[in-house]
Amino acid sequence: xxxxxxxxxxxxxxxxxxxxxxxxxxxxxxxxxxxxxxxxxxxxxxxxxxxxxxxxxxxxxxxxxxxxxxxxxxxxxxxxxxxxxxxxxxxxxxxxxxxxxxxxxxxxxxxxxxxxxxxxxxxxxxxxxxxxxxxxxxxxxxxxxxxxxxxxxxxxxxxxxxxxxxxxxxxxxxxxxxxxxxxxxxxxxxxxxxxxxxxxxxxxxxxxxxxxxxxxxxxxxxx
Length: 223
Ligand code: DC
Prior knowledge:
The structure is a single chain. By secondary structure, the protein is of the alpha/beta class. It folds into two domains: 1-28 and 126-215, Rossmann fold, CATH 3.40.50.300; 32-124, 3-Layer(aba) Sandwich (Rossmann fold). Helices cover 46% and strands 18% of the residues. It is built from nine helices and seven strands. The chain has helices at residues 15-26, 33-46, 54-63, 95-105, 108-119, 134-138, 152-161, 168-177, 199-217, and strands spanning 4-9, 29-32, 66-73, 76-83, 127-131, 144-149, 190-193. The chain has a seven-stranded mixed beta sheet with strand order 3-4-2-5-1-6-7. Strand 3 and strand 4 (76-83) form a beta hairpin. The longest helix is centred in the C-terminal third of the chain and has 19 residues, at 199-217. The chain starts with a strand and ends in a 6-residue tail after the last helix. 2'-deoxycytidine-5'-monophosphate binds next to helix 2, helix 4 and helix 8.
């Protein structure tokens, strides 16, 4: 039975940076579920599928040729979703893809497909999985649930420092208000506001809590 650490939260709340630090420290496999939604959004744009048409997007999601692989680099193992054996690493970070992804992610059939695919990642071992609905919907049974957040100004500044200008408030609102699996704090999740914390501090807090909980629930000590 794999251990799954669920790290949800708002956009630019440090989910990726901290999930990778935690995965490295524990020797777990890192899974970026946002990248999977972005991959579908990119694929639809490539194939000229109208992202406003739920049926067409659901059909694309039902029929695209994908594969999950686990790759290791710089001490981190991570899962990638390939489409036609291709990993669109740069393409999924463009403004066009970012602009389309929330629409795609709101479609119930898409979310069903994603949930199935994300749950399938346990075949690669113990996971640190980041997203918006991991603790509430994808792995609600896990004992390890975290919700990261930071003040809007702080998150916008972080994105700007990465060279990305984005209306985070609008994206958070879309992610929180969709009918299916909206962004929300999972029952029992530890909430960490890291507005004034460095990633070393945030990941340190996560690792400390995870190890404490492992002792409490009797999971074999992490490496
Ligand atoms: O984390 P990110 O910015 O790469 O996520 C891209 C989009 O995908 C984001 O608008 C919300 C959506 N998403 C989701 O609905 N559920 C997830 N588990 C992960 C991401």
